Fold this sequence. Notes:
By secondary structure, the chain is mainly alpha-helical. It has helices at about 5-20, 80-95, 100-105, 105-120, and strands spanning about 60, 70. The protein has one domain. A two-stranded antiparallel sheet has the order 1-2. α2 (about 80-95) packs antiparallel against α4.
Amino acid sequence: MHPLAYDRLKKVLKVEVKNKKLVGPDETCDYYPCHFIGQDCTWCFCPFYPCEDEQTGGECVEKRGGGRIWGCSECYWIHNAEVAEALLESFRRYGIKNADDIVKRKEELKEIFSALKAIYPPVRGNVLYESPY
């Protein structure tokens, strides 16, 4: 896991799991909106990265220095408030409390990903769920 992702997920899980709240749109971020206006920024760094699931809108892209990497700029799914909240609740149910759990419990993450996709199917290039913000 990238160090920036690890630090962000560590912070999110420390605060949000205890307080049971979402970040919502973070208009103070230099990159907002990186996906769409009104996006939920709780999972700024996706715990499923790289999901390698093109249904989410992600795709393999060329790196500047050559080679390919999983790109998520067209993924809207994890930034919909309903999905973000359901993921937070799933983490509570599974007892995933910190970034180390995300790193260590890959099989459970796959289960959570599949379950959430079944309930909230992503639509590539389209914001399926309205943000409450």
